Each structure stands twice: as C-alpha cells, then as structure tokens.
Amino acid sequence: MESDVLVVDDSAAIRKILQRVLRQTGMAIRTIHEAGNGEEALEVLKQHTVALVLTDINMPKMDGLQLLAALKASVAWNRIPVVMITTEGGEAKVGEAVKLGATGYVRKPFTADQIKEKLTGLVESTVPL
Amino acid sequence: MNVQKLIVSSIRHSVVEVFTTMLGADIESCEVSVAQVTPEANDGVVSFIGLAGAWTGTGSISCSPAMACRICSKMLLTEASAVDEEVLDAVAELTNMVIGNVKSDLERHLGSLGLSIPTVVFGKNFKTKSARSGDWITERFVWEGEDLLVRIYLVPEQVGPHPRLAGQACPIDV
C-alpha cells in the first residue's frame, strides 16, 4: 500500500533534493508533501495522513524540535516516525531530538544511500531497498 | 589547540565533503589568509550565516553568478542559466551545510554554538561590512577554474561560559 510522506525544510533546494532521493529509494510513496516550517507542517498534517515525516531542525517560526514535540504530544500524530535531517550534528540538538522521540537523524550533507538506510522499514517498499 | 588552525581545517573538510556528497564534484583548497576584510565593491553572490554562543561571529560564502548557477545545477540536477530564487536558495543551503558542519566541529572545543538562518545577496557593485572589526579567516577554493571564498569571523563572547577568553580575538589557543 502506498503512503504519503511529509518533507519539512525551509530550504526549497533541500526539499527538492529529498523529493528526488525519496523517489529513488523504492519506497511505496504516493505523494510527497512539502512544508517550509513546523507551522506549515502541522497544517499539512491536518489535511493529509502521512506515514513518515522528514524534518530539518533549524527553521524559522516553528523549528524541527518544536514540531517533533507537537507531534509526540498529539494522540493523532504521535505514532508517525520522525527523522531529523539536519546540519545540527552536535550532541545537544541530536540528544534533544532523540529524547523527544525522533526515530533517527541524517546529517547534511547526505547521500541517497544514507537516506535509504535510515528509512528502511519505516515505509513499505515496492522494491527491495 | 589553536582555534584558527581548527577553523581552517574544518572549513576545508566541510567544503570538500559538501561538494563531493551533494554536488558530486571535486573542489580544491588553494589559499588561506587571515586579515581584516575591508568593504570592497562586489559583483556576484554572497551569503552570510550567523554563529552565536560562547563564541560569536559570521560565516560567509561568495562566488560569481556563473558559479552560483553551476552549484544550483549540480545540487538540484536542473539547468540554471541565470541567478534566480532557486539559485539563491541552493547557495543558501550550501552555506548552511558548510558553516553548519564547521560549527559542529568547533562545538567540540568551544562549547555550544547556535546557527542563524542564512541570508543571500546578489547584485553588482555592492559592499558588505561587519559591525565588528577583527580578522576574518578566508579560505579560497577553486572549482572548474573559478574561485569560491569561504570566510569566518569568530571571537569569544564578552560574557559567556568561557570568561577567561573574553575580549581575545582569534587566533587563540584554548
């Protein structure tokens, strides 16, 4: 069964790269939704059911950690896997994300293989990853 | 440990990694200088990102419009022939990744640092100036015959978790 995925990043460039990489993973993805910050992400989630959220940490308005906290506090969304895609490789931010319930994180810059590896098993695959 | 050497080494590693991973391109470090950056007229694309914490400062990347278009084309696998919003966004993200990774390296030695949202400027005959005076570390890279300049200005914050470093300018041993 195909699922929807939500990509959250204030950089349109990164959203575009992630769209391409996600399509290359072989995962059964129907639609890849995009949001430029946490607030926009929550609006998307009100309208669509998604199986996975990929989010940047450092964003204006509502950052990735605030979005993660909001998702984990919501009965409707707290089971959605959330993978952080970030330049924030420092222990503090990553530790905070893990503490808040992040499924994993990928550090920028990333390769398609690194994204595939992190997402394996989170969404059904149409072909073996 | 010398912070200046650490920054130079970190910039080099970060730029090479980002170009290799995100652009599939080889880039070469050619020259390092440490000096005050005087406001000179620029033509091209310049991006800035702020660093804050126990140490504060700014990271910057500058290149020609043609190189900015090539960066965008390689990063997004699209054809960019003129500097538009997509090209500026690609340069902003390049800056975010390069300086963000330098920040992560430095945090191991200097304590926690925050990173601002990048700002990109494109134009002709414009000048930029930092509100603080001091030495900038500039590392020049060459990619496909053109220069990419990566600059960082970083000094200990006046009040912070490292009071013994207050007021001292980079380079500094910690």
Blueprint (SSEs and pairs):
The complex is a heterodimer of chains A (129) and B (174).
Chain A: E1 3-8, H1 12-24, E2 29-35, H2 38-47, E3 52-55, H3 64-72, E4 82-86, H4 91-100, E5 104-107, H5 112-119
Parallel strand pairs in A: 1-2, 1-3, 3-4, 4-5
Helix pairs in contact in A: 2-3, 3-4
Chain B: H1 3-23, E1 28-36, E2 42-53, E3 55-63, H2 65-76, H3 85-110, E4 113-115, E5 119-126, E6 135-143, E7 146-156
Antiparallel strand pairs in B: 1-6, 2-3, 2-4, 2-5, 3-7, 6-7
Helix pairs in contact in B: 1-3, 2-3
Would you write up a description of this structure?
The complex is a heterodimer of chains A (129) and B (174). Chain A has 129 residues and is an alpha/beta fold. Chain A has one domain (3-113): 3-Layer(aba) Sandwich (Rossmann fold). Helix content of chain A is 39%, strand content 20%. A five-stranded parallel β-sheet of chain A has the order 2-1-3-4-5, sandwiched between helices. Residues 125-129 of chain A have low confidence and may be disordered. Chain B has 174 residues and is of the alpha+beta class. Chain B contains three helices and seven strands. In chain B, strands 1, 2, 3, 4, 5, 6 and 7 form a seven-stranded antiparallel β-sheet that branches. In chain B, a hairpin with a 1-residue loop joins strand 2 (42-53) and strand 3 (55-63). In chain B, helix 1 crosses helix 3 (85-110) and helix 2 (65-76) crosses helix 3 (85-110). Chain B starts with a helix and ends in an 18-residue tail after the last strand.
